[in-house]
Amino acid sequence: MQVLLPPPLRELLNALEKLPGIGPRSAMRIAQFLLKKPDSLAEIQAALGAVAQTIRSCPVCGFWTDKSDACDLCTDDDRSEPALCVVKEPSDVLAIERSQAFRGRYHVLGGVLDPLSGVGEKDLRLAQLWERLRHESYEELILALGTSPEAETTAYYIARQLADWHGRITRFASGIPVGSDLEYIDPLTLSRSLRERQPLTI
After folding, report:
1. Where are the extended beta strands (E) located within 43-139?
2. Which of 1, 73, 75, 167 is surrounded by the fewest CB atoms within 10 Å?
3. CA atoms within 13 A on the CB side of 28
């Protein structure tokens, strides 16, 4: 029982249990490992401190950066494909980059519309997306939000809002399992789905 543990250890376990996929048993295993490996504990502590102090969302695309202005993806002049790829989370950017099939720009929404969980338009980076499409020149908007019901709803919402936009609105081709997040899709499947992307009709 946690009541038998010293308060700092109880606090560590409670903090670990707040992480996705970590329950009481996993939290205890992690804590035991860290207590047996003081060097690892110090290394993780230093890394967490550095992340807390320096990592933020890029003000342009929403990807992670340690810069105060645009991230490396946004300032890379070699990314010449005239397309903007909209994704759910920064980890989705990494998944698409592993596929090596896209050389355009990204826009991270920070989630998808989910009324049952209280996530609405103002909770996502949709206003920034509308602003980018007004002021930046793209020929195509790729909606790469996954295949969950909430992702589908978000994709169609964006498409309806942009009904008068001049460019093409596309989505990944079939091949991605229903309900899957992009970060769990292998690079080959992701590359093929991106190359064979299809128009999104509303």
Report:
1. 56-57, 64-65, 83-87, 105-108
2. 1
3. 5
* Whole-angstrom distance, CA of residue 28 vs CA of residue 42: 18
Residue whose token pair is 């790729």: 142
Q: Which amino acid is at 84?
A: L
Report the alpha-carbon distance of residue 90 to residue 144 in Å, rounded.
12
Judged against a pLDDT cut of 60, whether residue 1 lies above it is answered with no
Residues 127-174 pLDDT 10s? 999 999 999 999 999 999 988 889 999 999 999 999 999 999 998 765
How far is it, in rounded angstroms, from Cα 87 to Cα 163?
19
What 3-state class would DSSP assign to 142? Answer: strand
**Structural domains of the chain, with CATH:** 2-54 (1.10.8.420), 80-199 (3.40.1360.10)
CA distance 101 to 50: 32
Q: Residue 121: pLDDT above 70? A: yes
